[in-house]
Write a structure and sequence with these properties.
The chain has helices at residues 2-21, 38-46, 55-58, 66-69, 91-96, 112-131, 147-153, 200-204, 222-228, 238-241, 250-254, 280-284, 288-295, 304-318, 323-331, 338-354; strands spanning 26-30, 75-82, 100-103, 136-139, 158-159, 165-166, 174-181, 210-212, 215-216, 244-246, 278-279. It is of the alpha+beta class. The protein has 16 helices and eleven strands. The chain has a domain at 2-88 and 108-181. A four-stranded antiparallel beta sheet has the order 1-2-7-4, sandwiched between helices. Strands 10-3-11 form a three-stranded mixed beta sheet. The chain is 41% helix and 12% strand. [4Fe-4S] cluster 2 binds at residues 205, 221, 248, 251. Its EC number is 1.17.99.6. This is Epoxyqueuosine reductase.
Length: 355
């Protein structure tokens, strides 16, 4: 038995080393016990804070009971990968220029789903080379997985008051991915919290979506409104969105722990198509073919051209009035999409009020 334990300790160390070699910033291992998180998750769903994200509720307890999602699972290998591109224009500078489009920093490069899934598969292949065939399944924000809870239990960091994972050595600018496995690996010590009395993320949230520490009402979150919500954006929230046309990073930008964030070493996460410094008017000119060509391989591709135009129309409505902005909106006043037309009409009304 001792020899088996030694072998598992060695394998766990190898897995972490292989993970670093594959570009992950850190790898940890935990068990499947999420009993402490389950009541909090169920309460959050019961309060309706998930909004239109029906997938958050429809899988029942599989999200909080990994072995019910993947039978035979007894361990989760959790990994993080940094995504902050070193050459991206300063986020706050972009948000201060209302004619520019702010796009969440995670979406400036290639789709992280594909990148992480590929690397996690490579890590699984390395494990198989060492131990032979074993049971596993790879996840990257692609199934009912409580990734932050699992990452905290695996020692990768703690859940911040904005509900994202925070690391003392890497802030929060990273992606998470998991390997569910039947290997009885030794587990790591969970991380303790280090937010203290800080409320910077709650204070800065443009829509006050962080209704209390560690609890977000997604229905007010700009990331939800611009990415997950497929229908009309509530009018009361549109002015608060500013020029954020895909996601929102405010809570991360203000977090003091991001002084320690690591720049990505991955070429896939470098800025594409100048999306870190591009005007709303230019993006609004893209027809569907252009959108599909430029956004191919990007996380943005998933929301589709219509929703993209809806978001940009809101941004243009919040921009400083100029002939270029008005002309761009007028060109889509009769857009084929009712959703786009509605938001364009609202945007034009905002500028009419300023005249």
């Amino acid at each position: 038995m001792s020899q088996t334990l030694n072998n598992l300790e060695t394998l766990a160390a190898d897995i972490k080393r292989w993970g670093l070699e594959l570009g992950f910033g850190q790898v940890g291992i935990t068990d499947t016990d999420l009993s402490a998180a389950e009541p909090r998750h169920q309460e959050w769903i019961a309060q309706g804070f998930h909004g239109a994200m029906d997938y958050m509720a429809k899988h029942g307890e599989k999200r909080t009971r990994p072995a019910e999602l993947v039978p035979g699972t007894i361990r989760i290998i959790s990994a993080r990968m940094d995504y902050m591109a070193p050459a991206a224009r300063d986020s706050e500078e972009v948000m201060q220029q209302s004619e520019l489009a702010f796009i969440s920093r995670y979406a400036l490069g290639r789709d992280y789903h594909k990148v992480l899934r590929n690397r996690l598969q490579q890590l699984s292949d390395k494990i198989a080379q060492q131990v032979g065939e074993f049971g596993y399944r790879v996840f990257t924000d692609s199934a009912p997985v409580l990734e932050v809870e699992l990452a905290q239990k695996a020692g990768l960091g703690w859940r911040g008051k904005h509900t994202l994972l925070l690391s003392r050595n890497a802030g929060s600018w990273f992606f998470l991915g998991e390997i569910y496995t039947d290997l009885p690996l030794p587990i790591d010590e969970p991380s303790s919290g280090h937010c203290g009395k800080c409320t910077a993320c709650l204070d800065i949230c443009p829509t006050q979506a962080i209704i209390e520490p560690y609890k977000v009402d997604a229905r007010r979150c700009i990331s939800y409104l611009t990415i997950e919500l497929k229908d009309s954006i509530p009018e009361s929230l549109r002015p608060l969105i500013g020029n954020r046309v895909y996601g929102c990073d405010d809570c991360q930008l203000t977090c003091p722990w991001n002084r320690f964030a690591q720049l990505t070493q991955q070429a896939d996460f470098q800025v594409r198509h100048g999306l870190d410094n591009i005007s709303l008017v230019e993006l609004f000119k893209w027809d569907e073919k252009t959108f599909m060509e430029k956004m191919a391989g990007s996380a943005i591709y998933r929301i589709g051209h219509t929703q993209w135009l809806r978001n940009i129309a809101v941004g243009l409505g919040n921009a400083a009035t100029s002939p270029e902005v008005i002309q761009a909106l007028e060109c889509r006043r009769n857009d084929p999409s009712e959703l786009v037309r509605e938001h364009v009409a609202w945007a034009l009304e905002q500028h009419a009020k300023q005249r």
